[in-house]
Design a protein that fits this description.
Elements (H helix, E strand, L loop, with lengths): L23 H9 L3 E2 L3 E6 H15 L3 E6 L7 H15 L3 E7 L8 H9 L3 E5 L18 E4 L3 E5 L22 E6 L1 H17 L6 H6 L18 E7 L5 H12 L3 E5 L7 H12 L3 E7 L5 H8 L2 H6 L3 E5 L8 E4 L3 E5 L5 H6 L2 E7 L1 H15 L2 E4 L5 H15 L1
Parallel strand pairs: 3-4, 4-5, 10-11, 11-12
Antiparallel strand pairs: 1-9, 2-8, 3-6, 6-7, 7-8, 9-15, 10-13, 12-16, 13-14, 14-15
Helix pairs in contact: 1-7, 2-3, 7-8
Length: 406
């Protein structure tokens, strides 16, 4: 009589070797077409002030190139003027500076600022202005927030160039928006630069068409990398593109691989059914699933719509918090304190399927521990949403109270 094989739970991070059951690099390539690199240094940045200082410091030390891509660029306010001056100073040092701004996000910048930049030698492009083209140019938008200097230092996250990340802009008691970014030094910055180059070509009308893109074939790079052998931090750059659903699929992988914790912060929470099912399934399987959303939103209707998802999520064990500050704008995910996502993608149809987005996914225990500590600190300033009894439960409760009274 043969003894049946015992069940083996896959290790996380995976063991070394080609037989590893789970591979961070291979998984990211297969679900999100993202090449992972090792030997990066990742620094967690909290809120606008720290992020602006890091970005301006990188621009000040740039010697060859500065590439800045923004959804929100308010070049006339104090924050915007600091970046305008930093770009002009860099050009005077002989640095090639390119600025790519989405048309909708740059509407508040006056013409004199664009003229000042162009006259000063900055190469400025506006992405997808209104015109007689598909969707009249309204969609898709370039929702990315990316800075790359010299192909060696990159910054991405949810933070745009504007005063709301320094002084606020929602409600009577204005406070800086809560947001998160990551500074990456190492080969992942080159991947961010390649992503910028692709968007730049699209903006100037030289990028591949949608049909050409569907036919392009690119082999995987570094898909064999795993935690056991590669020096930290492992970083994959996920380029969100219309119709690709890359970040949603990456979340599905995280939800299926999570063994203990899956903590998400998202500003505009209108998730696809697949995302909802992944979160519910992980929670029912014993994973500590938490979602942090704004209590006050610069688009108030989003909160009302997001609340319609609460009952199903709460009923399945997902815990939800609402930020009690002015505006929680971060877009982050932390899985088991090992895998951390920081970028521009919110879990809604625009972020998942329509706009151009960019996210950095960091595989590193020390960085994950910092991200978890930041998330727990945010929960201290938030209110947990409690499940409400159903109409049937309230009715039955009333019957029981009535019976007991008699």
């Amino acid at each position: 009589m043969t003894t049946p094989p015992t069940s083996i739970t896959p290790e996380w991070p995976p063991p070394a070797g080609p037989s590893a059951a789970v591979s961070f690099a291979r998984g990211l390539w297969r679900v999100a077409a993202a090449d992972v690199s090792a030997g990066n240094r990742a620094t967690l940045l909290r809120d606008g002030a720290a992020t602006f200082d890091a970005m301006l410091g990188a621009m000040q030390h740039a010697r060859h190139t500065i590439d800045l891509e923004c959804y929100i660029f308010r070049g006339a306010d104090d924050v915007g003027q600091r970046f305008v001056q930093a770009m002009l100073d860099a050009v005077r040092r002989g640095v090639r500076v390119r600025l790519l701004v989405d048309w909708i996000g740059g509407r508040d910048t006056p013409r004199r600022t664009w003229k000042q930049l162009r006259t000063g030698g900055v190469d400025v492009r506006i992405f997808n202005p209104l015109g007689f083209r598909a969707w009249l140019g309204l969609l898709p938008r370039d929702h990315r927030k990316v800075l790359v200097t010299d192909g060696k230092v990159g910054v991405t996250g949810g933070i745009g160039i504007g005063e709301q990340w320094r002084m606020g802009g929602v409600g009577p008691k204005q406070k800086p928006w809560r947001d998160t970014a990551v500074l990456v030094q190492g080969p992942a910055a080159e991947a961010m630069e390649r992503a910028f180059d692709t968007m730049w070509l699209r903006a100037i009308g030289q990028g591949p068409t949608r049909r050409e893109q569907r036919r392009m074939v690119r082999a995987a790079r570094n898909s064999w990398i795993d935690f056991a052998e590669a020096p930290p931090a492992l970083v994959g750059i996920v380029e969100g593109e219309p119709g690709r659903f890359r970040i949603s699929r990456a979340l599905d992988v995280q939800a299926s691989a999570a063994r203990e914790r899956l903590w998400i912060a998202t500003a505009y929470f209108i998730p696809a059914f697949g995302v909802v099912e992944a979160l519910k399934g992980a929670a029912r399987d014993g994973v500590d699933v938490r979602v942090l959303v704004p209590g006050r939103n610069d688009h108030p209707w989003v909160n009302s719509y997001a609340a319609s998802y609460y009952p199903a999520l709460l009923h399945n064990g997902v815990r939800i918090w609402e930020w009690e500050g002015e505006m929680m704008h971060a877009k982050t995910t932390v899985m088991d304190g090992v895998i951390t996502r920081i970028g521009s993608t919110d879990f809604n149809p625009l972020g998942a399927a329509i706009n151009y987005e960019l996210d950095a996914i960091v595989g590193d225990r020390d960085f994950g521990a910092q991200a978890e500590a930041m998330f727990l600190a945010d929960l201290e300033q938030s209110r947990e949403v409690k499940p409400q009894p159903s109409r049937l439960s309230r009715a039955l409760s009333g019957v029981r109270r009535g019976a007991g009274g008699r």
